[in-house]
Specification:
CATH topology: Glutamine Phosphoribosylpyrophosphate, subunit 1, domain 1
Helix content: 25-40%
CATH class: Alpha Beta
CATH architecture: 4-Layer Sandwich
Shape: globular
Structural class: alpha+beta
Strand content: 25-35%
Distance between the termini: 31 Å
Largest sheet: 8 strands, mixed
Number of strands: 12
Number of domains: 1
Bound molecules: aspartic acid
CATH superfamily: (Glycosyl)asparaginase
Strand order of the largest sheet: 4-3-2-6-5-1-11-12
Radius of gyration: 17 Å
Length: about 280
């Protein structure tokens, strides 16, 4: 039997100034449409996540790929990850430099035994697979607001689940700093018969809590909406902002955040794409 596909993307948990709202909604919708086209054609959740995240990496609205923020030294270091819920394969890179679509590099690593490559090793792997190099960084100007990490969760017609993330990290941080984004069980997770989750926010806090792992643990009992809310509620223990998008085992979507805004897009088979900047818009 064919399953009813679902896709959900996020464009980061943070305050979005009014002038940037339209760009966030449009960017989320474009990403959802790219992923939905893959799923509608019978493609895999992994392929849909890659298509959606590529779209957002190419959009300078978001802190990933083209729009990535700079570290303390003015350099751009990119982290990305993807997970296949059927096989539990993980591909992740951290501190990647000079590549346009880090999600492509992470996806290529799914076929390798390594789950995470960092720095020079990640760069060498990207070169080996012929990943597309970026031009000079188009990083957001210092102090820019409204840019944030991107993520995607997808459920395909064959029951496959996947989760992915891509980020430039946090602005002005120490070179080499890595947050939750490329760490399985912290920023993301996917497992068939359980669900999929992708986070954004203060990476150190999310990593300390191993927040994606916690969420997955409660997801079967609580369902997507309550498990998402419970995970975000845990942030009170360590402080900081976060948001997460979640699918349960049959693709029911939900999201939660404690930041002022969380740019999200979603679509299901038979339901056109929609974009939200706050969870109140989704639950109406
Ligand atoms: N979680 C990401 C990090 O800490 C940043 C973000 O989501 O905006 O690197």
């Amino acid at each position: 039997m064919r399953e009813r596909w679902t896709i959900m993307v996020h464009g980061g948990a943070r305050t979005i100034p009014p002038a940037a709202e339209a760009a966030h909604r449009a960017g989320c919708l474009a990403a959802v449409e790219a992923g939905a086209a893959v799923l509608e054609a019978g493609g895999s959740a992994i392929a849909a996540v890659v298509a959606a995240i590529r779209e957002m990496e190419d959009d300078p609205t978001f802190n990933a790929g083209r729009g990535a923020v700079r570290n303390r030294d003015g350099d751009v270091e990119l982290d990305a990850a993807i997970m296949d819920g059927r096989t539990l394969d993980v591909g992740a890179v951290a501190g990647l430099r000079g590549y346009a679509n880090p999600i492509d590099v992470a996806a290529a690593l799914l076929r390798d035994n390594a789950v995470l490559l960092v720095g020079a090793g990640a760069d060498a792997f990207a070169a080996e697979i012929g990943a597309v190099r970026s031009g000079p960084p188009l990083a957001a100007p210092a102090g820019a607001v409204g840019c944030d990490t991107v993520g995607c969760v997808a459920y395909d017609q064959h029951g496959g689940l996947a989760s992915g993330l891509s980020t430039g990290g946090l602005e002005g941080v120490r070179p080499g700093r890595v947050g939750d984004t490329p760490i399985a069980g912290a920023g993301f997770y996917a497992e068939a018969a359980v669900g999929a989750a992708a986070f954004s926010g203060d990476g150190e806090a999310i990593a300390r809590l191993a927040l994606a792992g916690r969420l997955m643990h409660r997801l079967p009992q609580l369902g997507a909406a309550r498990a998402a809310a419970l995970a975000i509620g845990q942030m009170g223990r360590v402080g900081g902002e976060a948001g997460c998008i979640v699918l349960d085992a049959s693709g029911t979507p939900s999201f939660a955040h404690n930041s002022d805004h969380f740019a999200v897009g979603s679509a299901r088979q038979g339901e056109g794409p929609r974009a939200f900047l706050h969870q109140n818009e989704f639950h109406q």
